[in-house]
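Dear colleagues,

As part of the handover before I leave the project, I'm documenting each prediction I ran so the next person doesn't have to rerun anything. This entry is a single chain, and its sequence is reproduced below.
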Amino acid sequence: MAENAAVEIRDDRDHGNLVAYEGGESAGTIAYFVMDPAPGALVAVHTVVRPEHEGKGIAGALVREFYAMAAREDVPVVPLCPYAAKWAKRHPDEAPEASAELVREAERQLRHHPELF
């Protein structure tokens, strides 16, 4: 599905959410955290699109913006979210692969973020 150009995406860093808005309402979210020490990698934990917005390319637009945001901040992405990991494999030119060591450390640090489970 093509990504929806009418979606506005905003980063709510304080709450660890990258949020897509369509027609002024929240349509989807990537829940994430920033690895310590800051500025560490951005770790995508969950990607969720509200049912009424599914099939419009919102999840892909969110993941693409998540990688673009990390690139602007010059930090890597660790896609622990299954959707984000699958998207990254399909778009290797936009989604550099995280090292196995970085993935292990992200998984360890995720245990310190119970709000993301």
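The chain has a mean pLDDT of 92. The first strand starts at residue 8 and ends at 12.

All the best with the project,
I.
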